[in-house]
Amino acid sequence: MMGWRIEGEFPKQDKYIIAVVPHTSNMDFFLGRLIATIMRVNIYFFIKRELFFFPLGAILKWLKAIPVNRKSPKSLIDTVVRKINKTENIVLVITPEGTRGKTEKWKKGFYYIARKAEIPILPAAVDYATKRAVFGELLYPGDDENKDFKQMIDFYKSVNPTPRHSGRFEYPKIK
Fold it and tell me: Which letter does DSSP use for residue 129 in this model?
Protein backbone atom coordinates (compact mmCIF):
# COMPACT_ATOMS: atom_id res chain seq x y z
CA MET A 1 0.00 0.00 0.00
CA MET A 2 2.74 2.45 -1.02
CA GLY A 3 4.52 2.08 2.33
CA TRP A 4 1.42 2.80 4.45
CA ARG A 5 0.29 0.50 7.22
CA ILE A 6 -3.02 0.13 9.02
CA GLU A 7 -3.22 -0.10 12.81
CA GLY A 8 -6.47 -1.20 14.40
CA GLU A 9 -9.50 -2.72 12.75
CA PHE A 10 -12.78 -1.77 11.22
CA PRO A 11 -15.71 -2.86 13.40
CA LYS A 12 -18.04 -5.65 12.42
CA GLN A 13 -21.07 -3.33 12.74
CA ASP A 14 -23.17 -2.68 9.67
CA LYS A 15 -23.49 1.05 10.40
CA TYR A 16 -21.03 3.54 11.88
CA ILE A 17 -19.26 6.82 11.24
CA ILE A 18 -15.49 7.11 10.80
CA ALA A 19 -14.19 10.48 12.05
CA VAL A 20 -10.80 11.01 10.34
CA VAL A 21 -8.24 13.60 11.50
CA PRO A 22 -6.29 15.50 10.20
CA HIS A 23 -7.67 16.68 6.87
CA THR A 24 -5.27 19.15 5.24
CA SER A 25 -4.94 17.89 1.67
CA ASN A 26 -6.93 16.51 -1.26
CA MET A 27 -4.57 13.52 -1.02
CA ASP A 28 -6.46 12.50 2.16
CA PHE A 29 -9.44 11.52 0.01
CA PHE A 30 -7.43 9.22 -2.25
CA LEU A 31 -5.65 7.65 0.70
CA GLY A 32 -8.98 7.05 2.44
CA ARG A 33 -10.51 5.44 -0.63
CA LEU A 34 -7.47 3.17 -0.97
CA ILE A 35 -7.64 2.10 2.67
CA ALA A 36 -11.40 1.45 2.48
CA THR A 37 -10.93 -0.64 -0.67
CA ILE A 38 -8.18 -2.71 0.94
CA MET A 39 -10.27 -3.20 4.08
CA ARG A 40 -13.32 -4.00 1.92
CA VAL A 41 -15.47 -1.32 3.51
CA ASN A 42 -18.07 0.41 1.36
CA ILE A 43 -17.85 4.06 2.43
CA TYR A 44 -19.99 7.13 1.91
CA PHE A 45 -18.62 10.63 2.38
CA PHE A 46 -19.69 14.28 2.38
CA ILE A 47 -18.53 16.73 -0.24
CA LYS A 48 -19.60 20.29 -0.96
CA ARG A 49 -22.64 20.53 -3.20
CA GLU A 50 -20.87 22.92 -5.56
CA LEU A 51 -18.82 20.03 -6.97
CA PHE A 52 -21.91 18.18 -8.22
CA PHE A 53 -21.81 19.40 -11.82
CA PHE A 54 -21.56 17.30 -14.99
CA PRO A 55 -19.56 15.10 -15.40
CA LEU A 56 -17.95 15.25 -11.92
CA GLY A 57 -21.33 14.93 -10.20
CA ALA A 58 -22.00 11.54 -11.80
CA ILE A 59 -18.58 10.28 -10.73
CA LEU A 60 -19.09 11.56 -7.18
CA LYS A 61 -22.47 9.82 -6.94
CA TRP A 62 -20.87 6.59 -8.17
CA LEU A 63 -18.23 6.97 -5.44
CA LYS A 64 -21.09 7.36 -2.89
CA ALA A 65 -20.59 11.05 -2.20
CA ILE A 66 -23.33 12.88 -0.32
CA PRO A 67 -23.69 16.53 -1.37
CA VAL A 68 -23.58 19.06 1.47
CA ASN A 69 -25.30 22.41 1.38
CA ARG A 70 -22.97 24.22 3.76
CA LYS A 71 -25.53 27.01 4.24
CA SER A 72 -28.10 24.55 5.67
CA PRO A 73 -26.27 21.96 7.81
CA LYS A 74 -29.23 21.23 10.11
CA SER A 75 -31.35 19.80 7.30
CA LEU A 76 -28.40 17.59 6.35
CA ILE A 77 -28.50 15.84 9.73
CA ASP A 78 -32.11 14.70 9.32
CA THR A 79 -31.54 13.71 5.69
CA VAL A 80 -28.51 11.58 6.54
CA VAL A 81 -30.23 9.97 9.56
CA ARG A 82 -33.12 8.93 7.28
CA LYS A 83 -30.62 7.47 4.77
CA ILE A 84 -28.84 5.56 7.56
CA ASN A 85 -32.12 4.20 8.92
CA LYS A 86 -33.23 2.86 5.54
CA THR A 87 -29.83 1.50 4.44
CA GLU A 88 -28.69 -1.94 5.60
CA ASN A 89 -24.92 -1.28 5.50
CA ILE A 90 -23.53 2.24 5.65
CA VAL A 91 -20.17 3.55 6.78
CA LEU A 92 -19.96 7.32 6.63
CA VAL A 93 -16.50 8.91 6.58
CA ILE A 94 -16.23 12.49 7.80
CA THR A 95 -13.49 14.94 8.67
CA PRO A 96 -14.43 16.83 11.85
CA GLU A 97 -12.52 19.91 10.69
CA GLY A 98 -14.91 20.23 7.75
CA THR A 99 -12.21 21.93 5.69
CA ARG A 100 -8.62 21.45 4.57
CA GLY A 101 -7.71 24.80 6.08
CA LYS A 102 -6.76 25.54 9.67
CA THR A 103 -9.75 25.90 12.00
CA GLU A 104 -10.14 26.13 15.77
CA LYS A 105 -13.71 24.85 15.65
CA TRP A 106 -14.59 21.38 14.39
CA LYS A 107 -17.99 20.55 12.93
CA LYS A 108 -20.27 18.51 15.17
CA GLY A 109 -22.90 17.38 12.67
CA PHE A 110 -21.37 13.88 12.45
CA TYR A 111 -21.76 13.54 16.22
CA TYR A 112 -25.43 14.55 16.09
CA ILE A 113 -26.01 12.18 13.18
CA ALA A 114 -24.47 9.30 15.13
CA ARG A 115 -26.45 10.11 18.26
CA LYS A 116 -29.75 10.53 16.41
CA ALA A 117 -29.23 7.39 14.27
CA GLU A 118 -27.95 5.48 17.34
CA ILE A 119 -24.74 4.36 15.65
CA PRO A 120 -21.14 4.52 16.92
CA ILE A 121 -18.23 6.69 15.83
CA LEU A 122 -14.85 5.19 14.96
CA PRO A 123 -12.06 7.75 15.51
CA ALA A 124 -9.28 7.42 12.93
CA ALA A 125 -6.01 9.30 12.44
CA VAL A 126 -3.78 9.60 9.39
CA ASP A 127 -0.08 10.18 10.08
CA TYR A 128 1.90 11.23 7.03
CA ALA A 129 5.26 11.19 8.89
CA THR A 130 5.05 7.50 9.80
CA LYS A 131 2.67 6.51 6.97
CA ARG A 132 0.08 5.07 9.36
CA ALA A 133 -3.69 5.00 9.39
CA VAL A 134 -4.71 4.34 13.00
CA PHE A 135 -8.20 3.26 14.06
CA GLY A 136 -9.34 3.66 17.66
CA GLU A 137 -12.14 2.12 19.69
CA LEU A 138 -15.79 2.70 18.89
CA LEU A 139 -17.42 5.60 20.69
CA TYR A 140 -21.15 5.40 21.35
CA PRO A 141 -22.39 8.98 21.75
CA GLY A 142 -24.02 9.58 25.09
CA ASP A 143 -25.61 12.53 26.87
CA ASP A 144 -22.35 14.38 27.55
CA GLU A 145 -21.15 15.86 24.26
CA ASN A 146 -18.05 17.48 25.80
CA LYS A 147 -16.97 14.20 27.43
CA ASP A 148 -17.39 12.34 24.15
CA PHE A 149 -15.42 14.95 22.18
CA LYS A 150 -12.68 14.93 24.81
CA GLN A 151 -12.45 11.14 24.46
CA MET A 152 -12.07 11.46 20.68
CA ILE A 153 -9.51 14.26 20.94
CA ASP A 154 -7.55 12.26 23.53
CA PHE A 155 -7.35 9.43 20.99
CA TYR A 156 -6.10 11.78 18.25
CA LYS A 157 -3.54 13.33 20.58
CA SER A 158 -2.31 9.85 21.63
CA VAL A 159 -1.66 9.02 17.96
CA ASN A 160 -0.17 12.50 17.43
CA PRO A 161 -0.72 12.41 13.66
CA THR A 162 1.41 14.53 11.37
CA PRO A 163 -0.78 16.11 8.68
CA ARG A 164 0.31 16.41 5.08
CA HIS A 165 0.35 20.20 5.56
CA SER A 166 1.24 20.90 9.21
CA GLY A 167 0.30 24.59 9.20
CA ARG A 168 -3.32 23.76 8.42
CA PHE A 169 -4.18 21.65 11.48
CA GLU A 170 -4.98 22.29 15.11
CA TYR A 171 -7.10 20.65 17.76
CA PRO A 172 -10.37 22.34 18.74
CA LYS A 173 -10.88 24.07 22.05
CA ILE A 174 -13.22 22.09 24.29
CA LYS A 175 -15.37 23.80 26.90
Answer: T
Based on the structure, what is the number of domains in the chain? Answer: 1
Domain that holds residue 9: 5-38+72-168
Q: Which residue has the higher pLDDT, 33 or 64?
A: 64
pLDDT one-digit tens code per residue, 110-163: 999 999 999 999 999 888 889 898 999 999 999 899 999 999 999 988 987 777
| Within-domain flag for 46 | no
Nearest to 135 by CA among 35, 29, 7: 7
SS3 category, 118:
coil
Q: Is the dihedral of CA 68, 80, 39, 55 positive or negative?
A: negative
Which of 125, 112, 98, 121 has the alpha carbon at shortest distance from 21? 125
Q: What is the pLDDT of residues 2-23, one digit of tens each?
A: 788 888 888 888 999 999 888 7
Q: Is residue 153 part of a domain?
A: yes
Q: Do the domain assignments include residue 27?
A: yes
**Residue 127 and residue 6: Cα distance in Å, rounded?**
11
41-68: b or e for each residue (b if 16 or more CB lie within 10 Å)? eebbbbeebeebeeeeeeebeeeebbeb
Is residue 45 domain-resident? no
pTM of the model: 0.84
Say if residue 141 is preceded by a cis peptide, omega within 30 of 0.
Answer: no
